[in-house]
Amino acid sequence: MLKAPFGPCRADEEISIETDLTTLPWEVAYKFLIGSVIPRPIAWVSTTSADGINNIAPFSFFNGFGAAPLILGFAPMATEDRPQKDTLANIRASGEFVVNIATESTLQQMDATGRPYPAEVDEFVVAGLTPAPAAVVSAPRIAESPINFECRLFALIPLGDAAGSSTLVLGRAVHLHISDTVLRDGKVDATLLKPVARMGGPFYARPETLAFRRADRE
Question: Nearest-CA neighbor of 63 among 210, 198, 182?
Fold first, then answer.
């Protein structure tokens, strides 16, 4: 048996790890998760509170979940000292938000907005970002982001109710802004967009295109 900080694990001759995730402390399971599911795209979400305070926060539990309707989803996690993130509270109140795409040029500003500021703090001010008016939702866009999806709340799905749990936020994207600086032949070009993604621990990554095509595509 391999003894580890999180309890006994069965080890083979190559010292692999096998453990029961249902009994593992969530903090340890979380580290395995974020080290395995990589790279993770980042939803850089802007919202406005019921008191009119703008908020920005990045979320790496994020992806697209359909095209008709076009659904984007992300999942804020709960911690013992912060059971509900400001982003989630604002979306519950307004039913609207904007998913902005974070890029290499905005990496430091995006990282700054991920800190646990009090609800009355405007992260646009803290990070030196520019709020731009959205076309159809109340929350502002991040002007420095080249792609913005304006979303209306589609569903909130609680995934547990204790520290380490999350709430899956599904939004219907109703309006899109794309800067011509990231377009090539009418399509988003990743080499121009230069999006950033999360790795395990404190690290970020940039996408790298493999010289491989899907078998069902010309």
Answer: 198
